[in-house]
Each structure stands twice: as structure tokens, then as C-alpha cells.
Amino acid sequence: MAEFLQEWKKQKSALSKALEVSTNNAESYYNECVGDKALEVLGTLDVKFLCGAIAGDMIGSVYEFASFKKTDFPLFHSSSTFTDDTVMTVANAEWLLTGNDLIELMKGYGHRFPGRGYGGMFIKWLKENEPEPYNSFGNGSAMRVSPIGWAFDTLEETEEKAIRAAMARYGGNLSMVAKSLNISRPTLYAKLKKYNI
Q1: How deeply is 12 buried, as exposed, middle or buried, from its count of CB atoms within 10 A (0-12, 13-18, 19+)?
Q2: What is the DSSP string of 56-72?
């Protein structure tokens, strides 16, 4: 965890810069930084624990709702951009760093980066003063919690934080929490008891 915190503190400004790259300039920005190997810049940004997630999000952003089945395609397209999954991944990373309220961080980042492909229920949730579970489809769940896997050295620490993140995301809806973690409800109950959640 200490290594994660050091890296995050050191590189938060680089990550902010990466997030604020305009949609139309994504490929030229990366090429400008590193030449013809666009992906290498993600490593030079020194946010190594988020690079793969953000790169995958940006690369996939132009194909997300398309029926595209080829394996030979440009990694960065002129309309490549980060989506809501990157924004919420960063919120989760900051939660791990600061210990601040995850819900408030998610809402803050959601307001700071509007129009990133949030679902209708999430947009409604962002506007609520007292947010209730928004019945997320969970399709960005694995990416959004990826900082948790990087931050901890033991399975127990990782598992506890993943459960806490899912509990915050789904407002304590245990069926959705269990589904997002790919475990049964009885297994979830046992883990909630184990980690005193």
C-alpha cells in the first residue's frame, strides 16, 4: 500500500493531464510525446498502475457499441477518448490514497468530467443529494476497481477493499454486490462477517 500511495501522490498531476487530453487530439498527443509508439507514452506518464486500464478504455472507446470483430486495427483513433470507466477508476484510486468517502469522490469526478458515457441511471444518481443505489449494470466494474488489485500485497486486503468498493457502488444492495464480485450471496455474507463490514 505504501508504494501505491507514493506513486499516486507523485503522479496525480500527470494523470490529470492525461485525462484532460481533448478527444480529437488523443493520437497526436501520444505520438507527439513518444513518436510512433503511442502506447509507450502511457508508461512515461508514470502512472503505471492505471496505464493499462486507461489505454484499454481509450482504445476501446470507439468500438464499444460497434459490432467490430477484427484484430488488426489502429490502437488510437482520432476520436479515441477516455470514458466514464477511466473517470471512476481514478475516483477509486483517490479513495485508496485519501480514505475519503468513495461516493463523494465518484460524484465529484462525475461532475468534473461530464459527458463521458455515463448511463442514464448514473447521471440521475450524480444529481441526487442523498444518493441511493442506482442499479448499475456493472459493465465497467472490473476496470473501476483495478487500483485495488495494485495497491495491496495480500489477498485479504485486496478482497476487503474490493468488497467495500462494491458496497459503496451498489449502496449495500447485496445481490448486486455479490454479482459484481462474482460470488454467491452466502459467500458474500461470510466475507462481510470476516472483514467486519
Answers
A1: middle
A2: HHHHHHTTTTS----S-
Distance CA 62, CA 180 (A): 25
Sign of CA dihedral 8, 10, 15, 20: positive
As a whole number of angstroms, the distance between CA 150 and CA 125 comes to: 28
Helices (H) and strands (E) in the chain, counts: 12, 0
Question: In the chain, what percentage of residues exceed pLDDT 90?
Answer: 11
Q: 27-32: long-range contacts (C-beta < 8 A, 24 or more apart)?
A: 27/74, 27/76, 27/77, 27/78, 27/80, 30/76
Task: Let me know how long the chain is.
Answer: 197
Domain boundaries, the chain: 1-82, 88-197
Q: How many CB atoms lie within 10 A of CB 126?
A: 17
Q: Tell me which residues of the chain have a pLDDT lower than 70.
A: 1-51, 133-141
